[in-house]
């Protein structure tokens, strides 16, 4: 994902942010939210968000210039409502923790794992799914009993203002606070001594966020991005692969952290892939320039970045195939394929985060695996294949944040699966129980019994102690 953050500075000039964090921490320590409080908080959040969902759809469309209503309802509406429902349905069991006997040597002692709120959580949300990627981690943090400071993106200002208004309706500021502002505020926010910091954005900015958090030893969850590949096996039906890759790639005009960044396939079928993709775009997005189902690039800076990278690819000898006619005045960039791009040009080196998709020719699935493993580990990987052995080989030999086999994106929508990156594509997980655990301290507790077996292991050590030690170290 793309985000901006200036070099991290000290927070001395931003005392109001630290004062707010201190207030929240004091409030959280005075009264740790109970199960009933958390359930009520989440219920009110759901009700108020649902009531204002149309307002959010309008705000996101205004921020982007044009954003598909249906895509906003699905990706930023349904996802948040479903996540809140999932948390509320399972919160009691998650909070219960685990109890049991201690290891046999320590009987009759017992043990417990308690799930304790961390305290004050900071959340930095990006612009590409500005509601989903703010409210889903926030719901998890609230479910875990924390207080939250949220910094939404300045690149979607109307949506950020609406988030601030929504959360102010639901929570007092000492429970949840929204901080608005540009890169300087974001830098100061990242440097606060939170009990946990959750960041979604680009790998480049993630490094700066992690460096800022490290000064206060703040644990971080980084949801980043990278170049997520799709492999098409030589005998997989091409029309099916094209339809499923296109549905995921052109969603939100490719401004999705787990969108297919490039496709690996056999060279012989690339011309057919291009024609099938052109047919898909013409059929699904007629009159692209004015089509309400196709989203604009979020701002002029991002639009010019993509245009510049395509120009560089052309100059370096790549074939750039625009599948429809866009409109630069509205930042409508047509779905575009790039063939035979040199490996060191921008479209092959950087996360694209737009409706641009290179096609890379490889002779086999094994060669595709080698190509992926020679590059930083991706946030997502997609493999299209009906051969079970080859599929298992891809799963065994590659490391990625998440995988969907024979489709794209859909692993992120599974309530039973964690979501998170690996290495340059992120660290840590959230969604469902993993989100609850991310924002909780799993506190281990041992309860010693009235009679302790450890009394046998105190000095002076004599025959019984010698026998026990000999038995235990056998």
Question: Would you write up a description of this structure?
Answer:
- This protein has 474 residues and is an alpha/beta fold.
- The protein is built from 16 helices and 16 strands.
- It has helices at 15-30, 35-51, 53-64, 69-96, 132-143, 157-170, 183-190, 203-214, 238-249, 270-284, 300-315, 346-349, 365-373, 388-397, 432-438, 463-472; strands spanning 98-101, 110-117, 120-124, 147-151, 176-178, 196-200, 220-223, 229-232, 262-265, 319-322, 336-339, 356-361, 380-384, 402-405, 426-427, 440-447.
- The strands form 3 sheets. Strands 10-11-12-9-8-13-14 form a 7-stranded mixed beta sheet, sandwiched between helices. Strands 5-4-3-6-7-15 form a 6-stranded mixed beta sheet, sandwiched between helices. A 3-stranded antiparallel beta sheet has the order 1-2-16.
- It is globular, with a radius of gyration of 25 Å.
Approximate helicity band: 40-55%
Judging from the principal axes of the Cα atoms, what is the shape?
Answer: globular
Uncertain spans: 1-13
Spatial extent as radius of gyration: 25 Å
Record field, number of beta strands: 16
What is the typical, i.e. mean, pLDDT?
Answer: 94
Distance between the termini: 55 Å
Strand content: 15-25%
Q: How many DSSP H or I helices?
A: 16
Oligomer: single chain
Largest sheet: 7 strands, mixed
Biggest sheet: strand arrangement = 10-11-12-9-8-13-14
- Give the helix/strand class: alpha/beta
